[in-house]
Amino acid sequence: PGSVSAAFQEYLQHLRLQDFPCGLGSWVRLWGGTAMGHGTRLPLPLLSPCLQNKSSLNAGRRPRAEPAELEEAVPLGEETPEALLELLRDQHSPWALPPDCSPQDQLLREVAVLAPELLCGSRVFQVVKSLRILDKGVEEVDEGLLRFQQLEELILSANHISRVISAHLPRTLKVLELCYNTVGDLQDLCAQPPPELQHLGLGHNLLCGPSQEKHLTVDFWPNLVSLDLSFNSLTDLLGLVSQLSTLQNLRILVLQGNPLALIPTYRGFLVDSLPKLSILDDIHIRPEERQQFHGLARQPELIRSEARVVVSIGEMKGLPDPKDFQQLNVGSEGPVITCSYYVTYEF
Questions:
Q1: Which helix (H) or strand (E) holds 344?
Q2: Which InterPro entries does the UniProt record give (predicted)?
């Protein structure tokens, strides 16, 4: 699709919100040209030969009835919203959503039954509060997102986004997830960031310090509670902590997978430097752990720009076993074969 807006339109087409049992107005079932009332039920596989949306003829003539009036208001031959919802929710129904569908999918399909007029034209953007577009090849966070005036959660993980312009983000956002993209610079994102944002997910991107730390302060994220910077290329632990310490609401921090996490005193220094932190790298900070590392933040000299890595090789296949050569007796007439190997480590 290229842009978030294009991906959303493709997503709406996939949901088929105008097809039975969704769509504007009420549905009537036809079998062999004869309308069938509520008292007549056919097995679900037989319900599909001929379905007609009556709203195309009289959508503007009769307002939608309230639930208490449905038994009286729904004419003979038309399905009640409850009956249509049952077709969406029953796992044996051919119109049911798959078990792994998102709450967003379920919500929009049910709204298309109960209040389909809300999904017509641009009004659909007022309904969506959570938008999840995963692994759809999105490259651009375009200004079309501003049409989502109620959007609180935006999940764009596993795409190809390298740049996020904050002016294109709805001001109502509270959750922004951009994991598994190619974001390498936070300058555009921090120009006018959503002021109410509580979670920012930037794990598995291309961030590298120390130029990015300056964008992670309270000046840009006054309400940030959760921050995921895992598996980037951040190296300056001291510089990063000095900026993160300004985030007074920060409670959850993920930094694992960065080179700075290899520093021996990494966890202890962070625990003591950020006393309001509750979870670090998905591990709860226990009171005894905080007591153990008390005072470490005042000893930055313990943070060395080096780390020891122990690598052990388990089993190697396709190589001769050195033990076979040790069985050769000294003075043996057979040729002596010497083999040597080298291993390359890339960090």
A1: none
A2: Leu-rich_rpt (IPR001611), LRR_dom_sf (IPR032675)
Give the single-character DSSP code of 297.
Answer: G
Residue 329 is predicted with a pLDDT of: 60
Residues 112-138 have pLDDT tens digits of 887 777 777 778 888 889 999 999 999
Task: Identify the CA nearest to 197 among candidates 226, 159, 217, 228.
Answer: 226
The structure tokens listed for 251 are 């409670």
Within 8 A by CB and 6+ apart from 331, the residues are none
Where is 124: in which H helix or E strand?
Answer: helix 124-127
Architecture of domain 4-22+91-302: Alpha-Beta Horseshoe (3.80)
What is the secondary structure of 188-199 as a DSSP string? TTTSS--TT--E
Contacts (Cβ under 8 Å, ≥6 apart) of 161: 138, 139, 140, 141, 178, 181, 182, 183
What is the 3-class SS of 59-107, one letter each residue?
CCCCCCCCHHHHHHHCCCCECCHHHHHHHHHCCCCCCCCCCCCCHHHHH
Q: Outline where the chain has alpha helix (H).
A: 4-15, 55-58, 70-73, 81-89, 103-114, 124-127, 237-244, 266-273, 287-292, 322-326
The CA-to-CA distance between both ends of the chain, in Å, stands at 35
* Cβ atoms of 29 and 35 closer than 8 Å: yes
Other beta carbons less than 10 A from residue 252's beta carbon = 16
126 contacts 151 by C-beta, under 8 angstroms:
no
Whether residue 162 contacts residue 186, with contact meaning beta carbons closer than 8 Å, is answered with no
Between CA 290 and CA 210 the distance in angstroms is 27
Amino acid at 46: L
Best CA proximity match to 221, nearest among 196, 188, 251: 196
The model scores a pTM over 0.90:
no
- Indicate whether 37 pLDDT > 80: no
